[in-house]
Amino acid sequence: IRKIGLLTSGGDAPGMNAAIRAVVRACAYHGLTAVGIEQGYQGLIDNQMYEMGARDVKNIIHRGGTILKTVRCKGFYEAAGRAQAYQYFVQNQLDALVVIGGDGTFTGAMLFAEEFGVPIVGLPGTIDNDIFGTDTTIGYDTALNTVVDAIDKIRDTATSHNRLFFVEVMGRDSGFLALNGGIGAGAQDILIPEEHFDLNKLFASLDRGYQAGKSSSIIVVAEGEEGGVYEIAKRVREHYPNYDLRVTVLGHLQRGGAPSCADRVLASRLGVAAVEGLLAGQSAVMAGMRDGRIVFVPFSDAVKKEHVIDNELIRISDILAI
Ligand code: F6P
């Protein structure tokens, strides 16, 4: 392996730049050429790529987003798109790929590796933390801190007005951000897609809060929750017409900002692991971190198996809402 292409794909996540920097510098360290591919897989299909040296990644470790840009590329789901991408892979004399992204990114990589025998290592980059095989994903810690910071601010105004706030946090179909962010921000209740939604349970929780003398409350709702935050808030409003209720959707602000130190270190370690993994013959795997150690997990496991929420956290959040 002499030349490694790298790309970021899917939703951006804070720490992707730190991962790009680590891959490029690990390549330079090992005497390899790094090639940055722009706009995710789209750049491979359109032949948008350029060589990157160690100095090309200066001053990016602290920046959110991705300097390589990212796309959710539909073309790569098609065999014809992947065939086109392979042509440019060969034309540019690439020997391997490092792809940074989530589920969709790894699914595409798995197919590409299978079809053309291309060595690929993936790095988990998504704020959702919904990837099996790694304790956390690049971007998750930063997003979590953004969520807690935002809810702290909402709490100030909720308390001042004696209001009930429903705060929707991101996470597509998974409740990691909601559950951990909700515990960190001291939510009265946390609604996540992994748990069956029960309106009466929510009413009981609100009643308990009221009886305990709480004058304001925060309910954290994961984006993927059945019905959505506005529908849930509507039903609560119908049941408690006297409550002063507001809804805040945190939205894409959760994806931006400077990466936390934990995300920078994770991205740096995984970036080096990806390059050294490829040199050691790894392929069609994700480089992840489990219990503080680097692990290589087959793409097939990373995309098919579920990263399961710890039920103990649900229990803890219930206890602390007393
Ligand atoms: O996967 C990251 C994520 O931010 C999810 O939490 C969210 O559901 C989705 O991306 C939003 O995607 P988009 O930026 O394409 O609207």
UniProtKB/TrEMBL annotation:
Localization (cell): Cytoplasm
EC number assigned by the record: 2.7.1.11
Quaternary structure, from the entry: Homotetramer.
Cofactors demanded by this protein: Mg(2+)
Signal peptide: none
Stated name of the protein: ATP-dependent 6-phosphofructokinase
SUPFAM superfamilies referenced in this protein's UniProt entry, alphabetically: Phosphofructokinase
Binding site for ADP: 21-25, 155, 214-216
Protein residues bound to ATP: 11, 72-73, 102-105
Keyword Nucleotide-binding: yes
Residues binding Mg(2+): 103
Functional note: Catalyzes the phosphorylation of D-fructose 6-phosphate to fructose 1,6-bisphosphate by ATP, the first committing step of glycolysis.
